[in-house]
Amino acid sequence: VQIDLNADLGEGFGRWSLGDDEALLNVITSANIACGFHAGDPVTMLRVCEQAAARGVTIGAQVGYRDLAGFGRRKIDMAPDDLTADVLYQLGALNGCARAAGSHVSYVKPHGALYNTAVVDPVQAAAIVEAIVRYDRTLPVLTLPGSALAIAASESGVTAVSEAFADRAYRADGTLVPREQPGAVLHDSLAIAARAVTMVTNGTVITQNGTEITMAAHSLCLHGDTPGAVEIAHAVRAALAEAGVYVRPFRR
Amino acid sequence: VQIDLNADLGEGFGRWSLGDDEALLNVITSANIACGFHAGDPVTMLRVCEQAAARGVTIGAQVGYRDLAGFGRRKIDMAPDDLTADVLYQLGALNGCARAAGSHVSYVKPHGALYNTAVVDPVQAAAIVEAIVRYDRTLPVLTLPGSALAIAASESGVTAVSEAFADRAYRADGTLVPREQPGAVLHDSLAIAARAVTMVTNGTVITQNGTEITMAAHSLCLHGDTPGAVEIAHAVRAALAEAGVYVRPFRR
Amino acid sequence: VQIDLNADLGEGFGRWSLGDDEALLNVITSANIACGFHAGDPVTMLRVCEQAAARGVTIGAQVGYRDLAGFGRRKIDMAPDDLTADVLYQLGALNGCARAAGSHVSYVKPHGALYNTAVVDPVQAAAIVEAIVRYDRTLPVLTLPGSALAIAASESGVTAVSEAFADRAYRADGTLVPREQPGAVLHDSLAIAARAVTMVTNGTVITQNGTEITMAAHSLCLHGDTPGAVEIAHAVRAALAEAGVYVRPFRR
Amino acid sequence: VQIDLNADLGEGFGRWSLGDDEALLNVITSANIACGFHAGDPVTMLRVCEQAAARGVTIGAQVGYRDLAGFGRRKIDMAPDDLTADVLYQLGALNGCARAAGSHVSYVKPHGALYNTAVVDPVQAAAIVEAIVRYDRTLPVLTLPGSALAIAASESGVTAVSEAFADRAYRADGTLVPREQPGAVLHDSLAIAARAVTMVTNGTVITQNGTEITMAAHSLCLHGDTPGAVEIAHAVRAALAEAGVYVRPFRR
After folding, report:
1. Which helix (H) or strand (E) holds B247?
2. Cα angle vertex B188, ends B185, B194, to 5°?
3. How far is CA D248 from CA B220, D27, D90, in A?
4. Is B14 within 8 Å of C41 when comparing Cβ atoms?
């Protein structure tokens, strides 16, 4: 049994930093690096690419809406052609940094409001896939299983890689409990680690109402900017190792 | 005898456009496409890349300072590491668009204040070259002959391609008469065209004070955003053809 | 009988300009000046304020989403507190320029997607009104009659001034025919001028399906960035004068 | 004897924060609030204005170059008219927020590279003063004694208020030891507090080479974003109180 661990990195901008990128890079196997639109200045992008390359961590393009002030967390009602071009631009920009670090972009993961929109909106989902098809159709996209983005990807011959969240509560239909609701986010590192092991070895998760549902994921998303993020990440990785799970990037 | 014709394209941003990109693409052989920092939104970049690719026009990265409000015309006193990362980011971003258009970035040309700074400042010049070395050291850089950028390039094994300006007055030392001075910019299309032919076939130019100096250039820069730009470009190209000069990109 | 004529001005940014601000300022009585979020750099804002002040044209804050790349034409799904702060910031910024020009901001008009959203969305409408209440509750807001913004304004004691569009087709319910539909925008200056006169003197307009509806407006909006904009503006003003209508700002 | 304590506040942007604004507001008497160009989103600006107003802390406009990526720490070689307009815009924008908080902007202090440039460059210094003259000539400007900005201010009838830095080493000519040099910044809170008391009660400071120079300041600048910033601020304020110095804003 094997699994990938991914996290959002490089989410500072200039003078401002967020999370402990270097500590997380010692735990994860895939780094979703911000590409400058919701976060991520070029110096930070280049440095995180170098740090990822030095550790053999796979680099993914964390593409977002052009919205530094809102950190990409506000949906922008944009035309699909504009979104395709924005994704191409960000993909290329990160690849410029990755290439200078002796690596390259290996996958795409939307960020924040774009992530959520791509789960439900077939038009924006297709616009993202269109960018991948035009840039390099062998790049997988990391998303929720069953999302509009996963469907749009498969229709275009792009691989959709499923991810799960060990620190988030799920509803019976397999969707995430919205962050605003009580209990939506777990904070106890041991509980999160145990949940991660069950997700990977059993392919299931206990939902908010106590039922067990299947949860087939090729990657677990770890949060990088929450309190205790690094400790939780280490706990998850240690528990997976103890359970005999190999932690490996889903793509090299 | 052969020569390349280059011009700045894609210098709009969103709702705002500048110059007649499509008309110029029918005349020039190398397109310096803005990369989003001083001008150039992703949709425009992608469209101009597609138009250039369709005509076999070579694509170059017109990299600039991050300064939309100042159109990249104000020197920013930035650290070399920051500048290297900014150039890598822009290079990659344009290449993302070029790749989607079935082409790729073939050279680099700094824009505006960065162009002028790189002519005289060895530190910023070296920072630009460092980005090229790290991204793809086979990419030439387009600049003035004898500039700090040309010197920095040659010291790092990067090719510096010389360009000349048929519509600008030169001083006896081979530098350009500053734009603010009277007579700095020529406007008569026939005079400009004749000057272009002399530059290419004779390798010389008459300076402001009447002396003749050598002017060895592999590319002539045509301006795209001045009144009559398209007409001047056509006049130059026609005069070169009549003089038996082949107009070809300096790099494919 | 009297009427105000308003138009969007100052919608360039740095190197880029849009429309002929100075020509329009000779025709209109209220200038909706862009405040830097969707368009409008400080130099342009200051210059247009000076030109407006010199002609006795009333200055209004044309507030928009923070979206230079999209010219404020894309809805951003932002929290009301964020929107209130963004409006306060823009209001104050324009007032800084207006004050330096010996004038001041006299009203507020949302731009583009924010205008359209405020017509139908009570939450964003209320967020705009909240900014006005906190900044200066005597400032009127210019909007469509019956809009969510007009309702939110009246609930907070803020004056809503109704505007109409002489160059746009109306539906029987008094809403505008969407721009994408054929016939949505009129281009003939004489037809537009005649329509303007009927709107003002008769308080009615003929809708797309031929019925006549009442259209009580205190201001007519003229477009500044369409082909023939200046000519249309002059035609409207001349026709109004000929019909004995006084053209005056709705607020001094 | 009395003195003002000022500090830079509101220097986050959207998701990113910097320093502990609220803790510092309990110590200082004048808040230099970032205005959105180098830092400071509207929500942050409004909140800090409200917190300052609630504590009777005077609000100043901390104006900077338009350079979020560089945090305003890179000199931009801009035309004076452009700088004047940028300062007017920022002044007005902050005043919009301050007004909504029941307060107003009471002084101006340039930030980062603009601060340093205004110390030595008469052209940019005069451009800043021009903005103040046009906006409200009664607003003082906070700067180093003897700076180009102080001179430009006095020539235009604008008050220049002198500030000193208790945590920075001085050279014999009264200028600051550049940050890059060893010993340029003091970190020991007791040493800084003692230095502050001497500056205020004695009007002197011991320079790097051991000589004593006069240092007449009406305000002491406390740093907000360094480790131990809040503790140092409290130590300075307590030491001043113990020495019988009244801590009061230089302007209400």
Report:
1. strand B246-247
2. 100
3. 64, 11, 26
4. no
Supply the pTM of this predicted model. Answer: 0.97
Interface of A with C (CB under 8 A): 66-67, 69-70, 74-79, 82, 113
Q: Which residue shows structure tokens 């031929």?
A: C210
Is the pLDDT at A96 greater than 80? The verdict is: yes
Give SS3 for D33: strand
Q: Nearest Cα to B170, choosing from B201, B213, B127?
A: B213
Tell which phi-psi region holds residue B159, choosing left (phi > 0), alpha (psi between -120 and 50) or beta.
beta
ipTM reported for the complex, 2 dp: 0.96
Q: Give the pLDDT of residue D209.
A: 93
Q: What angle do CA B70, B72, B78 make, to 5 degrees?
A: 105
Q: How far is D144 from chain A (nearest CA, A)?
A: 25
Write out chain B residues lying below 8 Å of A36, CB-based.
Answer: 89
Are B69 and C16 within 8 A, CB to CB? no
| pLDDT band at residue B84 under the 50/70/90 scheme | very high
Measured CA to CA, the distance from residue A62 to residue A115 in angstroms comes to 10
pLDDT tens digits along A151-195 = 999 999 999 999 999 999 999 988 899 888 999 999 999 999 999
Residue pLDDT, tens place only, D160-197: 999 999 999 999 988 899 888 999 999 999 999 999 99
| Contact (CB<8Å) A82/B43 | yes
Determine contact, residues B145/B174, Cβ cutoff 8 Å. yes
Q: Per-residue pLDDT tens for D116-161? A: 999 999 999 999 999 999 999 999 999 999 999 999 999 999 999 9
Task: Return the CA Rg of chain B.
Answer: 17
Residue C133: closest CA among chain D residues belongs to which residue? D100
Report whether pLDDT(D223) > 80: yes
Residue A34 tokens read as: 């911000």
> In angstroms, what separates the C-alpha of B97 from chain D's closest C-alpha?
23
Q: What is the mean pLDDT of residues B90-111?
A: 98
Tell me which H or E stretch contains D141: strand D141-143
Rounding to the nearest 10 degrees, give the CA dihedral for residues C66, C72, C77, C80: 60
Q: If interface means Cβ-Cβ distance under 8 Å, which residues of chain D face chain C? A: 36, 41-43, 45-46, 81-82, 84-86, 88-97, 99-100, 131, 134-136
3-state secondary structure of D176: strand
Percent over 90 (pLDDT), chain B: 93
pLDDT value, residue C175? 87
| CA angle, residues D222, D224, D229, in degrees to nearest 5 | 80
- State the pLDDT at residue D216: 87
Integer angstrom CA distances of residue A72 from A81, A223, C129: 18, 16, 25
CB contacts < 8 A, B to C, total: 34
pLDDT confidence of residue A91: 98
Kind and range of the H or E run holding D105: strand D105-110
Quote the longest CA-to-CA distance of chain D.
Answer: 49
A120 within 8 A of A132, measured Cβ to Cβ: no
Closest CA to C196 of C241, C145, C142, C141: C241
Which residues of B are less than 8 Å from C69 in CB distance? 13-14, 41
CA nearest D13 in A: which residue?
Answer: A69
Instruction: Determine the pLDDT at residue C138.
Output: 98
Closest CA to C165 of C142, C187, C195: C195
Is D86–C42 a contact, with Cβ atoms under 8 angstroms apart? yes
Across the interface, do B13 and C12 touch by the CB < 8 Å criterion?
A: no
What is the spatial distance between Cα A159 and Cα A107, in angstroms, rounded to a whole number?
A: 10
Phi, psi of A42 (to 5 degrees): -55, -40
Interchain contact, A67 vs C76, CB within 8 Å: yes
